[in-house]
Amino acid sequence: QVHLVESGGGLVQAGGSLRLSCAASGSMFSINAMGWYRQAPGKQRELVAAITSGGSAYYVDSVKGRFTISRDNAKNTVYLQMNSLKPEETAVYYCTEGELVGKWDYWGQGTQVTVSS
Asked: Are 27 and 1 in contact (CB under 8 A)?
């Protein structure tokens, strides 16, 4: 059984930074794509960043230059470094894993990120 466990969320002031982690177990982590989504209250879940098994990264335009996704296959962990955070980025951030980017099979429970103004 696959488990994805996110950590690293919290409260940060605007302009601050957080690093999210997602530890995977029970999956073929090293050959799967990984992604981070977020969902703000009353809004649809949106893709923030994704990384392929080969390490190619994709970002939504609004976070380019501020967020960095990375993976450590030895630790079965994917990270999301978030810098220069904005209040509108307050959301629950979810980790996801799948065979391909966009073809997600597993989801974590989410971690809350709150950015105060």
From this structure: no
53-107: per-residue pLDDT in tens? 999 999 999 999 999 999 999 999 999 999 999 999 999 999 999 999 999 999 9
Phi and psi, residue 29, nearest 5°: -55, -50
- C-alpha 85/C-alpha 83 separation (Å) is 5
Residue 73's identity, in one-letter code, is N
Q: Tokens in use for 1?
A: 């059984």
> What's the rounded Cα separation, in Å, for the pair 116 and 114?
6
Contacts of 62 (CB under 8 A, 6+ apart): none
Residues 39 and 48: their CA atoms lie apart, in Å, by 10
- Longest Cα–Cα distance of the chain, Å, equals 40
